[in-house]
Backbone:
């Protein structure tokens, strides 16, 4: 009986140690919202996508719609915005999970696979994506369905909504898979260099990418917009308090007209959400 009692005591001590360690781990785990409030800083990850976000190749200085908008959001919330890390469209969720940054501060389109790992803010803008091809390629004029062919290649970034877009809308087409750290500019260049055949962009993004390549790609004639998306910012899954803070600031900017004024500074084609009244 003494042996059984000692064994039971050892078991209880082990169990209590595990419980103490586990509860301590949970107690010390810091959420992004708590970190932001304590530090007074929102640490932003970002991806380059002109004119929403532009990075000067020489100085590294950031500019653009997202840059301006986040600085205004910071002012509304009484917080400093720190542009912490440039990441890829396909892998930005990893840094949110590990706490390397607090928010992804570049606009993203919703993707059912991605929203399992990220909480999205309210919509910022609405985008109508047109189809662009090389200027000398008339295979698809007047008929988007001609893109849905095994003879056609569409560029997409691994882990990004561009993959889902291509697979769902044009399932017969081939996908040119680009690394997770690739940019929209890389997709654009893939079409220019004939590694791919078509790309889907909103007018503002196309104009920025096409500025140094006048006439290389043109909008496909005689067809409607290929896709319509709302764009969002993102925080880690479950960070509802941080998301709600950002949403309140965004709604204020929507309702008082500042978001529309700022968006149209960069492109008259940007469509902003309706006011709440």
Residues:
């Amino acid at each position: 009986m003494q042996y059984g009692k000692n064994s039971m005591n050892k078991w209880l001590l082990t169990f209590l140690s595990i419980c103490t360690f586990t509860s301590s781990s949970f107690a010390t785990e810091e959420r992004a919202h708590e970190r932001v409030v304590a530090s007074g800083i929102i640490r932003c990850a970002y991806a380059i996508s002109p004119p929403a976000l532009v990075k000067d190749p020489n100085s590294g200085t950031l500019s653009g719609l997202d840059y301006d908008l986040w600085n205004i959001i910071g002012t509304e919330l009484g917080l400093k915005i720190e542009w912490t890390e440039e990441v890829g469209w396909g892998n930005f969720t990893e840094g949110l999970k590990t706490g390397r940054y607090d928010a992804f501060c570049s606009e993203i389109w919703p993707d059912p696979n991605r929203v399992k790992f990220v909480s999205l803010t309210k919509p910022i803008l609405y985008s109508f994506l047109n189809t662009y091809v090389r200027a000398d390629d008339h295979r698809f004029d007047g008929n988007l369905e001609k893109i849905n062919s095994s003879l056609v290649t569409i560029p997409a970034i691994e882990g990004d909504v561009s993959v889902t877009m291509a697979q769902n809308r044009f399932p017969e087409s081939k996908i040119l898979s680009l690394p997770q750290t690739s940019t929209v500019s890389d997709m654009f260049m893939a079409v220019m260099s004939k590694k791919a055949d078509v790309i889907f962009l909103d007018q503002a993004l196309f104009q920025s990418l096409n500025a140094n390549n006048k006439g290389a790609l043109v909008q496909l004639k005689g067809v409607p917009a290929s896709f319509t998306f709302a764009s969002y910012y993102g925080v880690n899954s479950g960070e509802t308090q941080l998301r709600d803070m950002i949403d309140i600031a965004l709604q204020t900017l929507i309702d008082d007209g500042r978001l529309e004024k700022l968006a149209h500074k960069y492109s008259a084609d940007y469509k902003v959400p309706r006011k709440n009244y």
